[in-house]
């Protein structure tokens, strides 16, 4: 007769937690290998991605993202002839130029912007050396993403932001991300699906990312035309940007006589 059932329950809970942790670590290790391995991923010193970004059905334009190790970043998105710019010096300062704001001017990133910039500027992503980055991972469950079997992991970063990643059970590449993004000073649920993985210098990248905010009409589609790595990038690209020259005003149509 079991006199102390709580001991058995505690043991089972401990075993379950241990297995989940081991499963999470195993999945992450296989993901890093699937992308090309830690050595090749860390061997990328510079990166430039160019392509097209689409917001819904009415807004589409070219984008460029440049990164320089360890954490420097430069991003431009052009819509309707106007270019939004975001830069980060890799240390403590970043800037935003938003031509669609009421008073377009270069502004320093806020404390909130700088808190989240690490994830954008990080070359390797949250899973390479995740413990050193202060990230905690947990195995959640098996799941299904667009008909594909997947492993779902929970990631809590050093800012206590929580997001969920779904890894392809066959390839171990990331299929889906769920989390939140800041829009108009508040967080909204957001999810992204990753497609079309291709190898660039031995490292696999998704060339198509489709995102949306569940339950709303907010959508985003990022299509990479070219991804270049270990190319020269001028350091000045990561400093405070200068506002681009505005386009000339449209000429008046000729008057009919």
Would you kindly provide a written description of the structure presented here, covering whatever features stand out?
The chain has helices at residues 5-35, 38-42, 111-121; strands at 46-55, 59-68, 72-79, 82-88, 94-97, 106-108, 136-145, 148-156, 162-168, 174-183, 186-200, 203-212, 219-229. Strands 6-5-4-3-2-1-13-12-11-10-9-8-7 form a 13-stranded antiparallel beta sheet, with helices on one face. The chain has 257 residues and is α+β, with helices and mostly antiparallel strands. The radius of gyration is 22 Å and the shape is globular. The chain has one domain (14-238): outer membrane lipoprotein receptor (LolB), chain A (Clam). The longest helix has 31 residues, at 5-35.
Would you tell me the overall average pLDDT?
A: 87
What is the CATH superfamily label?
A: Lipoprotein localisation LolA/LolB/LppX
Shape: globular
| Annotation field: number of helices | 3
Strand-and-helix sequence, N→C?
Answer: HHEEEEEEHEEEEEEE
Number of domains: 1
* Sheet of most strands: 13 strands, antiparallel
Number of strands: 13
Low-confidence stretches: none
Largest beta sheet: what is the strand line-up?
Answer: 6-5-4-3-2-1-13-12-11-10-9-8-7
Q: Tell me what portion of residues adopts beta-strand conformation.
A: 35-45%
Highest CATH level, the class:
Mainly Beta
Structure class: alpha+beta
Per CATH, what is the topology?
outer membrane lipoprotein receptor (LolB), chain A
Terminal-residue CA separation: 107 Å
Can you tell me the CATH architecture? Answer: Clam
Rg of Cα set = 22 Å
Share of helix among residues? Answer: 10-25%
């Amino acid at each position: 007769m079991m006199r102390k059932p709580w001991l058995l329950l505690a043991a089972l809970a401990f075993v379950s937690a241990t297995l989940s942790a081991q499963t999470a670590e195993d999945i992450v290790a296989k993901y890093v290998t699937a992308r090309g391995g830690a050595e090749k991923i860390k061997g990328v010193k510079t990166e430039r991605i160019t392509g097209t970004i689409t917001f819904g059905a009415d807004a589409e334009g070219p984008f460029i993202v440049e990164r320089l190790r360890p954490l420097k970043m430069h991003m431009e998105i052009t819509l309707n002839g106007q270019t939004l710019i975001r830069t980060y010096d890799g240390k403590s300062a970043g800037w935003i130029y938003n031509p669609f704001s009421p008073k377009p001017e270069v502004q320093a990133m806020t404390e909130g912007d700088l808190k989240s910039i690490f994830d954008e500027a990080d070359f390797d992503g949250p899973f390479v050396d995740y413990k050193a980055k202060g990230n905690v991972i947990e195995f959640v469950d098996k799941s299904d993403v667009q008909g594909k079997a997947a492993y779902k992991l929970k990631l809590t970063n050093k800012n206590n932001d929580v997001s969920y990643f779904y890894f392809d059970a066959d390839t171990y590449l990331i299929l889906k991300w769920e989390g939140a993004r800041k829009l108009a000073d508040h967080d909204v649920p957001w999810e992204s699906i990753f497609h079309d993985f291709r190898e660039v210098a031995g490292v696999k990248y998704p060339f198509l990312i489709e995102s949306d905010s569940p339950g709303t009409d907010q959508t985003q589609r990022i299509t990479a035309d070219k991804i270049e790595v270990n190319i020269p990038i001028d350091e000045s690209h990561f400093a405070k940007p200068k506002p681009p020259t505005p386009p000339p005003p449209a000429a008046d149509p000729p008057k009919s006589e």
